[in-house]
Amino acid sequence: MAVERDALMEAAYPEVQAICQKYGLIFEVIDLRWGIHNAMGTGHATAQLFLEEIRRCQKLSIGPSFIALIGNHYGNCPPPLTIKEREFEALLSQLLVDPHTLQLLAQWYLKDENSIPPVYVLQRSPQPRPDQEQSLVLALQRAAWEAEKCSLISQEQRQLYHKSEIHNEIETGLFSSGENELGAVVFFKELEESTGIHNPLDGLEEEEADGALNSEDQQMLAELKTKIANFYPDQLKVHKVSSNMTDSGLRHKPQPKYLKEFCEQFIVATNHQMLRSLRSQEGSLGSPHSLFQELAHHTALGQEQSQTFCWRQELLDHLCQRIKQNNYQAHSPLVIHGPPGCGKTTLLCHLCKAVHAVLGQETVVVLRLLEASQLSSACDNLLHNICLQVCLAMGLPPPCAKGGGSSVLFFHSLLLSVSLQGTQPLVLILDSVEQLCAPRDFSGVFWLPKVCPPKVHIIISVLLEEHSALHKVIMSPEDYFEMGPLSQEQAGEILAKHLASVRRTLSPPQRALFQQSFSEGGHALPVALAINEVQQWASYTPLSAVVVFSTASEAVHHLCGYLEQVHGSIFVGHALGYLACARCGLSEAELKDILSLDNEVLSEVYQFHPPPSKVILRLPPLLWARLYHDLTQWLVERWADGFLLMGFLHREFSDIVQERYLLTPEERIKRHLLLADFFRGTWSWGMKKPVELPSSSKPVSVDRKVTPQPLWFSSTLANQRKLSELPFHLLQAGRIEELKRDVLGNMNWIACKIVTTDVGSLTSDFAMCLVHISCPELCLLRDSLLLLEPILDITEGHVEVSVIYTEMLARLHFLAPFYPNLIGSLCQQCLSWFGAWPHPVLIPLCGFLYPPGGPLQKTITGFPKGTTVLEFSLDHRVLLAGSKDGLMVAWDMDNFTVRHILNGHSAEIRCMRVFRKGMHAASVALDHTLRLWNLVSGREELSIHNVHAGEQNWCQLHLDEKNRIIYWASGSEVNAWYLETGMPAFQIPVEPLDGWLCTAVFMPRLVVVTVSERGTLCLWDSISGHLYSKQELQGLGEEVPTCSVLLQKLGRMVAGFSQGSLLTISSDGHSLLEKLPAGLRFMVLSKDESLFVTGFGLCVRVFLADSSGFHQLLASDLMHNGEVNAAAISDDNTTVFTSSHDGCIWTSKSYNIVIWDSVEGEECDTLDVSAPVQCLEVAEQRNLLFVGLASGTVLVFPLDSRQDVGCIPPAENQKPINSLALTQNEFQLAIACDDMVQVLNVEQGESGPLFDQPIYTFYTQIPGAIISSIALLTGYRVLYGMTSGELFLYNCSHGQVFPLEAHSSNITCLKISHEEKWAVSGSGDSLQCLWDVDLCCWEHEMFFQKVQDSFSQGILCACFSKDDRYLFTGTQDQCITVWDVLKGTLLAVQFVHTNITKIMPTADGFVATTRLGYMVREKFRCPQPISPHYNPLCNIKATCRVKSRKNEGDNPEGQLGDQRNTLDRNICTNKLSQICKIV
Questions:
Q1: Strand partners, 1241
Q2: Residue-averaged pLDDT of the chain
């Protein structure tokens, strides 16, 4: 069937492979007979190897695992490898009259008495003669016939001597597959004259290349075909060929029709079984599939390890006893340490079973072997999967999307929840924790709790040389358990137990040799290797032919030498070298493809004979199967990139492979070059690679039939293996320009990597490359990706591709002119991608998000309930944050990684202080405890209980390091404790009905200053707590103190009050420093007391303090999108950290107006004004800028002449301008302030615009409400909205008021369409109404709101497109939305990370200003028609509702489309609807 095999290789396999790739499957053909020549030999063990490969396929394959091609050749009957003693003696008894045959059997079979019971073993001849082997088989068959007649053996035993290799393989692959109907496909090749399968004897007269079939073979083949036809008709396919055409004829004269039909039927049958199996799995996989896959993998490895003997039973018992003792008390994690190969993994796997006997069967045990899978090798993924498993097992709410440190915080909270639940003990067993850390740097175990709560146990293992660094985290020596070497007696005991379990023994001299080899004992790995070796010794094996190695390195070197001798030095060296060079390992299919591309390996394989095919050149699968069989005990399966990959089981083996086969840089580069070519797909898709073989006279180019490597297998499935491996190999091979062009500078690659994995995985690639490459552009790209990470929180971890292109373009556009090669190319790629995007999209035409290298370095996320306190230490570069749920996190500000999780408080953190040069910290929380922390070790050093945390928003913590006293002030008392002991120093009680609201400690003067709610200033002794003096603060009225800071050098306190007063207080009195527009929320002082920061409302103001007083440092306040609640100043006074309800976003609010070029996006001019700007309006046709000021004045700037500035004086009420509006023809201007509206004509004079007295003035006369927004139509019609939500259309000419349906919240935005047919009103509750101006009734009610930002909602601004088809809206939750005016449908959503303050249409989109100070210029592209599958909310977590008046009669209640972000590639039947329904 060689012709059929070649046809499948050329035509069928590539097509099946392409289909498998679309479903994320590896297609691997194991045809051990392809490419084999007689010169290679098969050997006696090959038949058994064939059966082992079939069983492996049945275990791994989800589609057909066995394909049989049966013609009229029955196959060879091999002699059995072993024969039981009684059976062999029964055979010998039938050959007593034939001494020659008895001698033949004695030569080929020797008795092995080390087997229990003894067996006769077939001897391997280095150069077996076919005639001798055939004589042996015939003799055994004849003896079996006679023995059966004498009832010495059974019929089944006799048939074993007559079954061919093919027969045995079919029995294993088809008959033994059980009820699995998807396991096999059988093809019969019959002659045309035969009647097919109904008469199996027909056609048997055909002669094969090996000669005619004898009668016994004919009978066995006929019975085999009949059985297949009768019992497996669904798996059987029959093909007929001409009766005068043999295999040799087919080879020389192909039958296109027959082979084509054969290949087509193979493709159909294979794909049918594969798809049917996939469909059956969809219903049983459950969710999440990746977790169950991970659990199954680690569970299987754990069970396999626990089947072996426990190397240290006494240590296992000791561990169980400690776990039992710790179950009802808080305790530290337990650490098992030892050198590589000491048996730590096996011990932990045995511990998994033992803890159930100790803690009960209900105990939840989580096992992770960190080297065994990719998901367990990264901290965030590891903790996320552990949390998910624990939550599912214990019925707790699962974690949210991972990323940004949230998994670590959830992990710590989960352990507390498990302990409090108290129903089931939890045991976490983690092997090889050093995999998460850099060498000798255990800052990577910041996630590891320093103390485990009751009923929660964590047991980890580390290398011996690494455990000393771990002492900084886990300090007690009692928590460490060392895995030492085994003694000679222990090694001998384990040998005896193992041999008994496999029913083997050793002769006394052999056993003595083993004991002598370990006379001084040894570690588990060399002992295990020696046991595996000696269990194969036969009783007849001479001692001179065996050796026992006492070290693992000796055993590995011996193995490599043996493999090179048996399989070829180049083949072995290159195969192991590729495995060692792979980043995550290789699958067998990948390695066979790679070896098939290696010309050196193929030259060694085909050194003495030509390849089997002239059009295909590959490594014969049998050669790899043999090598794999000899390497099995040294390899381990590892889940990575969605596949099971091969890797080295032991570090020793990997080290020796590196030393032996990759010693020189040249060898390593050659391996990486070929791996890069493979994952790049250089020689796939029919590309022929040249080669010059020893058996060929000239170089030839031949197709290697390797797997194609596209970036995307389908529209929803990426090539994860390529994403993972290609960057690594290009870097290691030195192909830097190719790496920058095709990977790091390729937007398609960047988007694919982020969507498939996450941003962190991509930034890791950049970090890996930047170690070896000095390139500023790559640094900027990496920083851009770091800024992109928070978008995952908005999209629930799944990023739509358009979001990635938008974010990258809007951040990199600034830098494109300066870095045209890489960044400029990326921007052009983004624009090209947007041009081909088939859905509505907003295309950035300028940069408007924080660029890399800009003021924003990193957005740190992780606290789901919000941050309450921030502290920063320059000495140790640590940012300390406290949260509402009691967790504290210390971040390393050099690399923005978590350094420590400080777990001790159980309620909101109220106050923190860092002291002793950043090495210690103190914290107070609402759980009424004060705790002292060591920021070096991350451990709690002291806790003080029954501390009154204060019920108000302010609280203060002071430290006197010289006198070693810590002070805590709350609304009811001031307490002092000694730092060393935690013993009370004194307490200052509150006066009745007059709580202390502000407190400060003057260290040099040893004075405590307190300010009470009624304005009483008291001075106290800071050592004894005695009262010095008392006085009243004057002129504060109803204000009460809210916060304060202490300036030790100046001897003053600065106190903030509830209505914005900022006072400086000293022992001599007080003075007003500043009157702020809102009540003060907090104050923070720099370390050198030269800066202090105040927070009020949405703003943070920075002051400079010196001997002359206090001065505002920045020209403008730092604006936020939510109320500010905390701040911190770096010790070098260069950085201010702020936190608000919705993030750390800063912008400037100044008394300047910036003029921009909307085409180039560049600043043109800056205009100074005398008061804060309230609103702007531009008259494009007249080239005028109208500016409404807080003073009530309206300034008019001619944009073409900056010197002639007009002025419209304030109205009589002199109130701030609330809103300005122009008609579309720009002939009239409306000015709104408070409850009054003025309408003026805009006329053009000789020297500029002229403004007369207002044509119309009217008042709203609505109690308790003022005008918030206006719009002006022709005919002196004014549309105005109120803070109460009411909306009116006033016709000035007729003095008529038309009330429109009111909003439920204040009107924040009003706009008129260019044709004045439509008007839009937006309110503070995120509702927009689209109005028909002529009918004065709404056409559509449109609601959009981000789910996360329910606290910051509302419409900020809006505008109609130039053709009035689209409505662009800027919302309070930092989004720009695009709506279809006629249909009211939502077309696009874009998150811009800040608020849009003004938006105006352009010819193809809009321009807008932001609170960040950037200008947004975008083009809106809306291909027609819009796909019915398009979901505008796929890239954001948001809710959208639309109600239309035309459909209101059909559905008065309207319909709600609650859409959340879901990528189209995630097909799941229980997903929420992705369609926004319009009513």
A1: 1228
A2: 84
Q: Counting Cβ atoms within 10 Å, is residue 597 exposed (0-12), middle (13-18) or buried (19+)?
A: buried
Instruction: Say how far apart CA 98 and CA 114 lie, in whole Å.
Output: 29
Task: Identify the H or E element spanning 158.
Answer: helix 155-160
What is the band of 320 on the pLDDT scale with cuts at 50, 70, 90? very high
Q: What is the 3-state secondary structure (H, E, C) of 241-279?
A: ECCCCCHHHHHHCCCHHHHHHHHHHHHHHHHHHHHHHHH
Cα dihedral across residues 1372, 1119, 892, 899: positive or negative? negative
Per-residue pLDDT at 749 = 96
- Give me the mean pLDDT over the 603-608 stretch: 91
Beta carbons of 1202 and 1168 less than 8 angstroms apart: no
Asked whether the beta carbons of 70 and 186 are under 8 A apart, the reply is yes
Q: What is the tens place of the pLDDT at every residue in 965-1022? A: 898 877 667 888 998 888 998 888 766 555 555 666 665 557 777 777 677 778 888 8
Nearest one of 1129, 1118, 1150, 1125 to 1139, comparing CA atoms:
1125
CA-CA distance, 1296 to 1314, in Å (whole number)?
24
Confidence of residue 1261 (pLDDT cuts 50, 70, 90): confident
Torsion of CA 1110, 1115, 1121, 1126, to 10 degrees: -30
Query: How many Cβ atoms are within 10 Å of 917's Cβ, its own excluded?
Result: 12
The DSSP letter of residue 1302 is P
**Tokens found for residue 1254:** 């207002």
For the chain, how many residues are written? Answer: 1479
Convert 391-460 into a string of H (helix), E (strand) and C (coil): HHHHCCCCCCCCCCCHHHHHHHHHHHHHHHHCCCCEEEEEECHHHHCECCEHHHHCCCCCCECCCEEEEE
> 246-255, 1178-1187, 1313-1322: lowest mean pLDDT where?
246-255
Q: Which two tokens stand for residue 1437?
A: 């977590």
Are 898 and 405 in contact by the 8 Å Cβ rule? The answer is: yes
* 937's tokens: 């070790």
DSSP 1396: E
| Rounded (10°) angle between helices 801-812 and 776-788 | 130
Q: How confident is the model at residue 794 (pLDDT cuts 50, 70, 90)?
A: low
Q: Could you give the CA distance from residue 102 to residue 257 in angstroms, rounded to a whole number? A: 53
Nearest to 465 by CA among 653, 338, 358: 338
Q: 3-class SS at 1459?
A: coil
pLDDT, average across residues 396-408: 72
Maximum alpha-carbon separation in the chain: 138
With beta carbons less than 8 A apart as the criterion, state whether 1081 and 1058 touch: no
Q: Which two tokens stand for residue 1117?
A: 């306040």
Residues 275-312 as b or e (16 or more Cβ within 10 Å = b): eebeeeeeeeeeeeeebebbbebbeebbeebbebbbbb
Strand partners, 1206: 1196
CA 262 to chain centre: 44
- On the question of a cis peptide bond just before residue 1077, with omega within 30 degrees of 0, the verdict is no
List C-alpha distances in Å: 133 to 124, 125, 129, 611.
11, 10, 6, 27
pTM: 0.83
Model confidence pLDDT, tens digit, residues 4-13: 888 888 889 9
Long-range contacts of 322-328, Cβ-Cβ distance < 8 Å, separation of 24 or more: 323/355, 323/358, 323/359, 323/427, 323/457, 323/459, 324/358, 324/359, 326/452, 326/457, 327/359, 327/425, 327/454, 327/455, 327/457, 328/454, 328/455
- Structure tokens given for 634: 């040294």
Paired tokens of 749: 């690659």
Q: Dump pLDDT digits (tens) for 425-472.
A: 999 999 998 888 655 455 667 788 888 999 999 999 998 766 666 777
> b/e for 1420-1443, b at 16 or more Cβ within 10 A?
bbeeeeeeeebbbbbbbbbbbbbb
Q: Compute CA 692 distance to the chain's CA centroid, rounded to the nearest angstrom.
A: 45
Instruction: Report the C-alpha gap between 888 and 900 in whole angstroms.
Output: 8
